[in-house]
């Protein structure tokens, strides 16, 4: 688990996933957020979503292993 959950009030939790294709491995930082991500929906706030993205990028730079991609998903 990546310790970025407390760095932003809108991050519910986060974790690493691996995608493996042949001998290639891609590390993905998955960030779950309670921020509305669809611009056409009520409650959408682009600034809040940008804060979540910035926190995820900062966390990916702090991890010991290289993060190849970041995936931000809505909380269930």
Would you mind describing this structure in some detail?
- This protein is of the alpha+beta class and 76 residues long.
- It has a single domain (5-74), classed as Alpha-Beta Plaits (2-Layer Sandwich).
- Helix content is 22%, strand content 36%.
- The chain is built from 1 helix and 3 strands.
- It has one helix at residues 46-62; strands at residues 11-21, 24-33, 69-74.
- A 3-stranded mixed β-sheet has the order 1-2-3, with helices on one face.
- Strand 1 (11-21) and strand 2 (24-33) form a beta hairpin.
- The mean pLDDT is 89.
Q: Averaging pLDDT over every residue, what do you get?
A: 89
Oligomer designation: single chain
- For the largest beta sheet, what order do the strands appear in spatially? 1-2-3
Query: Largest beta sheet, briefly?
Result: 3 strands, mixed
Based on the structure given, which CATH architecture is correct? 2-Layer Sandwich
Number of strands: 3
Q: Enter the CATH topology name.
A: Alpha-Beta Plaits
The first-level CATH class is given as Alpha Beta
Secondary-structure element order, N to C: EEHE
Cα gyration radius (Å): 13 Å
Q: What is the percentage of strand-forming residues?
A: 35-45%
Q: With helices defined by DSSP (H or I, 4 residues minimum), what is the helix count? A: 1
Q: What structural class is derived from the secondary structure elements?
A: alpha+beta
N→C terminal distance: 18 Å
Shape: elongated
Low-confidence stretches: none
The helix content is 10-25%
The number of distinct structural domains comes to 1
